[in-house]
Amino acid sequence: MVNVDENQTETETETETEHEPTEFNHFYQQGLTKYEEQDYQSALAEFDRAIDIDSGHVDAYIHRGDVKDKLEDYQGAIADYNEAIKIDSTHPKAYYRRGNVLRKAGDNWGAIADYNQAIRLNPNYTSAKHRSHIHANPETIEKLLQD
Fold first, then answer.
1. For residues 17 and 105, what is the distance between their CA atoms, to the nearest angstrom?
2. What CA–CA distance (Å, rounded) separates 147 from 141?
3. Are the beta carbons of 61 and 45 closer than 8 angstroms?
4. pTM value?
């Protein structure tokens, strides 16, 4: 009887593991759908669930960062993009999106550095090539030069 119980436990564990990708995909796809519907709070919850299942999925962090950006949680978005970069430092989209949020948060130099990194990683990344749209007023430039 002990062997049967052990086998049942192993089977149950195997079944749970087999369903994890399916559950992750469900929550991840729901997050994308809710984002497209501009239901950002629901999208955030879905991406949270997906990341709870697979905390190594770069795009889940990028998309959750996008949601936080829409919710104007810039520090939260930056944290998610940082995590994506920590998982895969060769992902140009993570640098580009973090650059966008840094620009919104007023860190133009940080944004330019991220856009440049996105281009270094993928020279054909046309979105990042538009980094020249960053403008700093003379007072900001003077302050940055003093720092």
1. 40
2. 10
3. no
4. 0.76
